[in-house]
Amino acid sequence: MRVTGHPLTLIFxxxxxxxxxxxxxxxxxxxxxxxxxxxxxxxxxxEAQVDDFIAAQKEVGPIVAKAPEGDQPDPKVMEQxxxxxxxxxxxxYDEYDDVAExxxxxxxxxxxxxxxxxxxxxxxxxxxxxxxxxxxxxxDKKAQLDELQxxxxxxxxxxxxxxxxxxxxxxxxxxxASMPPTQ
Length: 183
Known about the structure:
Blueprint: H1 7-26, H2 30-35, H3 47-66, H4 75-87, H5 93-107, E1 110-111, E2 116-117, H6 120-133, H7 138-153, H8 162-170, H9 172-178
Antiparallel strand pairs: 1-2
């Protein structure tokens, strides 16, 4: 995981990735997701869904952080996540997960400095330039750059619902603030 770069984006990506991995592994679709360039079930987000997602983070983050690692999630963890999702107006954890994936898809293309949607490729290239200009240990810098270069080689999924970009950009600061700090 990148140690430098834009800290708020790093925090969001790290926590959201952990949350999504719990959901994905619970559905046994990790291999399908990795194999398919069009892996996100894209939906048109609503303001209410984004607000509910933000509200749920205070509870989802700690559950995911305490979840044991492995191929199969703990059923008790999944029960807790289902309960939190329902408490925050989602039909179930799958719906929460769909909203999270759509938010993450947009967040990956937001320039943290301008808080404008520029697309995932442009955001990654900007982060590469930022890391290139930083003074960091050569090994750390190389690992970060290698990870970003690998992300650039992956197919970029386009956001199908332009309204999602507007909604996530509008709520960018609240989304970043809702993510628990990484350690």
